[in-house]
Q: What sequence folds into this?
């Protein structure tokens, strides 16, 4: 029996035809009269859809009081504090994020320090925020993190080389805008990598300790949609519909893992990000099948179940055979994505050195995601997984 | 309320933790983590701090401080004393308790939660400890 579950997804989600950002005034109307601070990165700030959003903001009576355009990949505490200073100086009372997970998480963290004062490090933890946050409008531009609907933000702390995890229902954005057009400027490599992140969210959420029937629905729908659309989304043309669906799927996967969290694949991916600077999606893609294989000893039934429900395989009499077939189908999907875009398939290709393995294992072992993983892992289990992916 | 007042809370939980700090197996792992955890209880109020960052004057694996202290904890948790009691009996699903805010945790939580497998033997130890003190069923 399930101990306890809850389902809570407070973010208003809007989507539609490509170009929605230019026609967003009705959805922005509730924020009329506010002074917006926009967080974005050097690539996205130059995009044509960014200008369209500015037009909608003006139409809705929202003044853009400040724009921070320098969020790096895997943003850190110093960036958060710099944005806070800029927005505070310009008396911003709402925040808009246009970007991938790095930008969105930065905006969430800025929202904490702007409303609670002090340093970001003071707010590590779960459900400790006490003040109402500023309205946060999020435009996700990758098809990966799902951060537009999650209560989680992850920010690097360069000072002690750790990642700060901030978790609170209040961090859930107010409005998430899914404009398919933003996905059209994504290079295929980024589509592949971030979609693998989303697929990992869906699969890990489904097999995790805290899974529930309510989260399962979103995980299944997301995995199914990614399976069905990834290859087409990576084609040089005719990808519009498929990328749109990947965008929906990544948000759905976000809703799923916002309830049951992620597991061992993410623990290893976070380590690869921290130690070897491997982009989050690529890191998940590298470790996904290893993690599933490891978990299949404990939860073959759950792996088989999502494999069937999400259309990866047909149900067989034997559950573990179905689970193995599911893992093989996921591996095949991943191989297609990697080979057509050139994203690495081994740790060495991704730039990892053998002498980094001990540190990778240490970091993965102290990652919070492991707590939700259905099978307990030893240092040695994790080392073996990294070793198997090291050199192909 | 399981504990009628703060004195009783310190008497039970405090004494229990002070026994536990000599346990070889659990003690070593806690010591290695160098963690400082503080629990602040309500109903009845009480504060217990476990400091594994240095030596224990009593020769245990970590120091147990009962009541207010100047030591700055790395991980700080608040909960009703009843929840703490159930936790040490192994009856609390910590992940659910955190999401229901029955336990509120501040700081690098994974570091503290990582010790969960290590402290599992404490659950049966707590039940035995209560029985020895004639409190087999303290909820009565
Ligand atoms: N909070 C959460 O729920 C959550 C979940 C998973 C991951 N994350 C975090 O998210 C981060 C990764 O985010 P990400 O994978 O979205 O990548 P990202 O935000 O780091 O962006 C990667 C690159 O893609 C470029 N880019 C983004 N959108 C583009 C577009 N539409 N067109 C062209 N270029 C574009 C960016 O400029 C950047 O160079 C990590 O820090 C990870 O820890 C957060
Ligand atoms: Fe992720």
A:
């Amino acid at each position: 029996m399930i101990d306890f579950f809850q389902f809570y997804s407070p973010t208003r989600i809007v989507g539609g035809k490509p170009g929605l950002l230019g026609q967003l005034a009705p959805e922005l109307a509730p924020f009329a009269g506010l002074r917006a601070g926009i967080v974005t990165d050097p690539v996205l700030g130059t995009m044509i859809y960014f200008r369209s959003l500015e037009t909608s903001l003006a139409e809705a009576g929202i003044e853009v009081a400040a724009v921070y355009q320098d969020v790096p990949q895997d943003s850190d505490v110093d960036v958060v504090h710099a944005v806070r200073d800029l927005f505070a100086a310009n008396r911003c009372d709402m925040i808009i994020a246009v970007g991938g997970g790095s930008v969105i998480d930065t905006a969430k963290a800025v929202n904490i320090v702007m409303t609670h004062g002090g340093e970001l490090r003071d707010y590590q933890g779960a459900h400790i925020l006490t003040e109402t946050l500023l309205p946060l409008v999020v435009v996700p531009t990758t098809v990966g993190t799902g951060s537009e609907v999650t209560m989680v933000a992850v920010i690097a702390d360069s000072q002690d080389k750790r990642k700060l995890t901030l978790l609170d229902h209040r961090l859930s954005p107010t409005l998430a805008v899914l404009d398919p057009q933003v996905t059209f400027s994504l290079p295929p490599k980024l589509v592949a990598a971030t979609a693998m992140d989303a697929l990992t969210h869906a699969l890990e959420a489904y097999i995790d300790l805290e899974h529930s029937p309510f989260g399962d629905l979103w995980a299944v729908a997301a995995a199914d949609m990614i399976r069905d659309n990834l290859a087409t989304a990576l084609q040089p043309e005719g990808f519009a519909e498929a990328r749109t669906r990947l965008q929906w799927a990544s948000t759905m996967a976000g809703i799923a893992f916002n309830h049951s969290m992620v597991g061992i694949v993410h623990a290893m991916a976070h380590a690869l990000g921290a130690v070897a600077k491997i982009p989050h999606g690529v890191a998940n893609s590298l470790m996904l099948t290893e993690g599933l294989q490891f978990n299949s000893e404990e939860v073959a039934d759950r792996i088989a179940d999502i494999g069937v429900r999400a259309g990866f395989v047909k149900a067989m009499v034997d559950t573990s055979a179905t689970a193995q077939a599911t893992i093989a189908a996921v591996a095949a999907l991943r191989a297609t994505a990697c080979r057509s875009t050139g994203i690495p398939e081994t740790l060495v290709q991704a730039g990892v050195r053998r002498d980094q393995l001990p540190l990778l294992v240490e970091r993965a072992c102290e990652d919070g995601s492991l707590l939700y993983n259905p099978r307990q892992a030893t240092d040695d289990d994790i080392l073996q997984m990294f070793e198997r992916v090291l050199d192909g | 309320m399981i504990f009628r007042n703060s004195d009783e809370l310190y008497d039970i939980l405090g004494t229990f933790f002070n026994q536990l700090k000599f346990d070889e197996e659990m003690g070593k792992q806690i010591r290695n983590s160098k963690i400082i955890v503080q629990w602040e209880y309500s109903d009845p109020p009480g504060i217990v701090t476990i400091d594994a960052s240095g030596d224990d004057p009593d020769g245990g694996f970590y120091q147990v401080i009962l009541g207010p202290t100047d030591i700055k904890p790395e991980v700080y948790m608040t909960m009703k004393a009843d929840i703490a009691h159930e936790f040490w009996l192994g009856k609390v699903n910590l992940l659910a308790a955190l999401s229901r805010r029955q336990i509120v945790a501040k700081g690098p939580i994974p570091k503290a939660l990582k010790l969960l497998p290590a402290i599992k033997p404490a659950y049966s130890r707590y039940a035995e400890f209560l029985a020895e003190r004639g409190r087999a069923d303290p909820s009565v």
In short: Chain A touches chain B at residues 3-4, 6, 124-128, 162, 164-165, 209-210, 365-368, 370-372, 376 (CB under 8 Å).
